[in-house]
Amino acid sequence: AVFVRMAALPLTATGKLDRTALPEPDQRRPELSRLYFGPRNKTEQSLVQIWEEVLDVDPIGINDDFFDLGGHSLFATQVISRVIKRFQLEIPLQSLFQSPTIAEMGVVITEHQGKLLDESQLSAILDELSSMSDAEAQRLVSKINSTVTKK
Fold first, then answer.
1. I want to staple 99 with a disulfide (CB 3.0 to 4.6 A). Which of 52, 84, 104, 109 is the partner?
2. CB burial class (10 A; 0-12, 13-18, 19+) of residue 148?
């Protein structure tokens, strides 16, 4: 739902509301109690893009609540369907209701992707991560994300 402040409602000659003269609602991010923070990684970037397409709101921050942005159960179904397709993961619809922000949903996706790795792959990655700088570790995580996405 979107509210547009107007000084007066447009009326027809007969005094009825002239719906055709109403302005189109602005699809910008509504004023929320949370500050806007942009996506921090590729997973969050993909989620933002999906949410912006489904909700027709731009921009969407990683801490914005799906339902505060006008989301409802039908939109949630569309979002989860696109997440499943984009990330090649089986994620239940309920996860959006339990994790209604981009940041929280990103964690859910990362956890599901992690389950796709076998123990030997995970052990090798953890060993390699422990001996790396932060920049090197970030490059490896990006590499892992691209490998998991291909599965």
1. 104
2. buried
